[in-house]
Structures are given as structure tokens and as C-alpha cells.
UniProtKB/TrEMBL annotation:
Signal sequence annotation: none
Basic and acidic residues biased stretches: 1-19, 70-82
InterPro entries linked to this entry: DUF7218 (IPR055642)
Name under which the protein is recorded: Rho termination factor
Ranges for region Disordered: 1-52, 63-82
Length: 82
């Protein structure tokens, strides 16, 4: 059974799974609180096929710092390693 992490975590199940994978509390919370948290994955195109604008929007959703000065490759790297 999943813990209830209170109103500051939107998707408790996903948060717990990410923490079990070794992610920090803040990173797990950012992902679990993203607008599309908990949606089934695997249907999205690879980041290389996204536009820079779409990458920027995703970086904004997960609060990547310095995103406004990043080029497309840097945004991809930041999204994958955030």
C-alpha cells in the first residue's frame, strides 16, 4: 500500500516508485507533480524528434534551471539527466 505524502505530492504511487529507484525527494516530487504524472508512457517520440520549443516547454514543466539559454542538444541532455 502506498503512503499518502499529503497534498504536495499529486501522484503518491509514482513518487514512491521513483524514490525506490533511488531518485532524490525533490526530483521524484517534480516528476510526480508534473501535469502528465502517472500517464502511461512509451508512446512519445524520442526527444531528438521534438522541436526545440516542445523541449523547452517540457523543461519548463520540470523546472530545469538555465533552460532559456540552452540549445536543443543541451535541453535533451538536461531532460534526460534531471
Amino acid at each position: 500500500m502506498n503512503k499518502d505524502h499529503g497534498p504536495h505530492i499529486k501522484n503518491d504511487e509514482q513518487y514512491e516508485a521513483l524514490r525506490d529507484q533511488g531518485m532524490s525527494k525533490s526530483k521524484a516530487a517534480r516528476i510526480a507533480n508534473s501535469p502528465d504524472a502517472g500517464e502511461k508512457g512509451g508512446k512519445s517520440q524520442p526527444y531528438e524528434e521534438w522541436t526545440k520549443e516542445a523541449l523547452y516547454d517540457q523543461a519548463q514543466k520540470v523546472d530545469i534551471q538555465g533552460r532559456s539559454s540552452m540549445n536543443k542538444d543541451e535541453l535533451i541532455h538536461a531532460l534526460r539527466n534531471n
